[in-house]
Queue: 3 jobs
Job 1
Amino acid sequence: MKISKNIQRSWMAGIMVFAMLVAACSKIPLVPSDKGEEFPFRDNSKVLLIVVDGVVGKELERITTPELDALKPNSIFSFEGSADSVTTDPASIAHIMTGNAVGNTEIRDSSLVPRVPRGELFPSFIKRVKDQKARPFRVVTVTPWETLNKTLFKEADVRISVAGNNNDVVRDSTVNRLKADSADLVIAHFNNANLAGLQEGFTTDAPAYRAALLKTDEYIGALVKAMRAATKFAEEDWLVIVQSTHGGNGKKYGGFLENERNTFSLYYNARLKSNLVIAPAGVKFGVKLAGSDANAVNASLSDAAVLQRGDKDNFTIRIEMRHVQ
């Protein structure tokens, strides 16, 4: 498997977990292309996936996060990730867990069940890895969303549902499992930033949201500390993934506006070298066409005279389009 510089979308978490559970990291230098060293197979590779709801990448970049900053020297990370064009909670978490956009999974509501039978063709990566049967594979999940444990996390060996959106309990339960369990994959799901964004807005100018981002950073630090304190940590090769589900705009999310789609991604392993991934200019500054109703985003000329040329003028109009689900 190769590490790519163009980590732009939330579903990369699922893809990276799938690959890294059957392969561990070798030393990857900063490279000017997508070419890197092949990862050798190792039986001791493990993954800690931290899913954080409602963390806007560009807002997170505005503040100091001590725990994440401590990981960055050995991380590939980006503040410019882009989620699917449907940024509801069900669609976003399904995007991460299946590696597919909502148009494929058709997971659109809080039941977390596909709307059509075809959606069953895109199960979570937990099932994909278990079906490989390459080695014994134990999974632990901790989330405040019980339905998630019954659906996209249903193949996990231990599923812990935390009542009342108590993210402190999510932290404590995950810490205990990291210290005492031999799981190959541990998934911790936090939603405190999402709740704060809905309350005061998805911006660090809002005290509640800023405090929630800092608290999330503390949660991440606690989990990494527990991972390192595990009895057999020295014998294991851990990949830590931090992935936000979606962003937010004002006090809302669910649509296709840029801030709603803006996510944060981080992939940490002691063998990696620091690499801040910047979105390509074409993606970053291009017009993102989306929607089909009166609120659709489209491209238009502000000055119609721009394309008015004389009969003898020869000119070419070039339009570059990239289809991204």
Job 2
Amino acid sequence: QTCALPICHRLGVSVNVSGRQLDDDVNLHADVADAVADSGLEPGLLTIEITETMLMRDAASAARRLADLKILGVRIAIDDFGTGYSSLGYLQQFPVDALKIDRSFISNISRNPESAALIHTMIQLGKTLGIETLAEGIEDQTQLLGLLSEQCDSGQGFLLARPLTPAALEELVNLTPQFAATV
């Protein structure tokens, strides 16, 4: 949460989890619970990102660990979605809030009909399952327009913003009308 008078914004944060962390039954849950408690962050503003490949190493165990994390109230996102060759049936087992569509699909959306078709399918899958879709690696206007026409829920990439210092982020948030509208 950033607060600069007169406006206060609720901003979320995403944290990538490694395969080794995901494999650790006890410490992952405790580490996330401690981080949420120590930071004062509302649990729903924390998104834990896990790659599709890591989830598929031991899907049943991963599903149990993610369910454990969901009890804390945090969000779960599958990062690099579409690259891990998972069975779509597993999506029903995982308590997932968001699918982050891998940048390799986004980069080819306007040049490759197959990439555009896969993006369309992933976004529709997310909508059908009630899972947010987020496009990674949006770098040009054509990509953004293609994703908007598919009704992708959100996106990230250099077209939207480069990495920012905390001061630059606060300035951007306070100067951008859509942030003020969400207060």
Job 3
Amino acid sequence: DALFMAPPVYTEMANILNDETYIDFMDQEFKLTHDFLYDKEEHLYYRDHRYFPDLKREENGEKIFWGRGNGWVMGGLVAILKDLPKESKYRPFYLQTYKEMAAKVITCQDAKGFWHASMLDHESFPDPEVSSSSFFTYTLAYGINEDILDKAKYKPAVTKAWQAITSAVYADGKLGWVQPIGQDPKTVTADMTEVYGVGAFLLAGTEMLRMVEQEI
């Protein structure tokens, strides 16, 4: 959550006040967190130190990477990239991290187009999780729209993801399959919903609309 909420504020403040001090501070703090929680082999983030693999793992032996937690991070990276000037000396790190995560994320998508509460253990968490799925739909679609990600490779995954998350909108408008507030993978049911899930879904919609408009 912190990497989604705080860093983009500093980047925006730097632009508003024309003061790079804010970006410099943001960059230092982000990289401290990155160095501590980013798995350089899996290209995903641990929620916090309690989920390091030497302390606990999923039932299938895989490392514990929380779906929504990584969705928050990718959403934060997109927000930073939107505000960082193309020529900024800070930009390459965030762009590279975004690309690494994107490449990993599409390998974690299930056959129906969803992501799950656990990125690497769909057997223990077989049901879809729509807040993470919406975040990944949003962030991957952004990469396609900005020519950051290869369209031929990523658009099929994004199209399938959009079809999946829209199927979780019920006749009365409720968005289901959203994991409640938490800190790690938990069981999700069809009737569960939360406002942040709806927010992520709407973000996904903005990029899907932009994709359609660019193709008209």
